[in-house]
Amino acid sequence: QEIKQKIEKYNAKVTNCLLMKLNEDGTYTGFIKVHLKLRRPVTVPAGIRPQSIYDALKEVNLAEMTDKRTSFYLPLDAIKQLHISSTTTVSEVIQGLLKKFMVVDNPQKFALFKEMRKDGQVLLQKLPLTEYPLYLRLLAGPDTDVLSFVLKENETGEVEWDAFSIPELQNFLMILDKEEKEKIQQVQKKYEKFKQRLQQTL
């Protein structure tokens, strides 16, 4: 009865037809939006076409149809809408997102965060894998300014390099090399300008 009242209150605030629905067994379904804020490239099958509706209905896993892999940057802050159940865990949401984008990386490399805005500040909190995102959405209401979900790299403090493939590690080296060169150029330009000013002053 308490959940039913919460759902009715939630649906009264919905403005985009994405309502929550209570089932006879006490579970409920609804929608969440997840912002993808991934800074590193992900691994996807090479030369595979995007998944069609037919593939999704037949549960065809295109990623398993080729052993070839390539790295790819997902668009920063892309948004994916998911229809989930009250029994869907954070772990299942992460796996579902990776499947939709045909990402073959280990799900442990990623984490789901809840983003909250309070007093003009943005607060990020990593969610445990056993948490239920739809219940958090129900409690917070439909306003994404109050609560939103973000998929990011799983920053645990220590990088588990064994979880990455050889092509990924090679890509990281290339990226680090590029960033190093850019930093060197920035420092050189900074001191070159400083040198010019000193010479003009002299």
From TrEMBL:
SARAH domain residues: 158-202
UniProt-annotated location(s): Cytoplasm, Cytoskeleton
CDD domains per record: RA_RASSF5, SARAH_RASSF5
GO CC, one annotated term: microtubule
PROSITE patterns reported for this sequence: RA, SARAH
Keyword Transcription: no
GO BP terms in the entry: signal transduction
Major site of localization recorded for this protein: cytoplasm
One Pfam family hit: Nore1-SARAH
Keyword Zinc included in the entry's annotation: yes
Domain Ras-associating as annotated: residue spans: 70-156
GO molecular function, one term: zinc ion binding
Keywords, alphabetical: Cytoplasm, Cytoskeleton, Metal-binding, Microtubule, Phosphoprotein, Zinc, Zinc-finger
Coiled-coil residues: none
Protein name: Ras association domain-containing protein 5
Record organism: Merops nubicus (Northern carmine bee-eater)
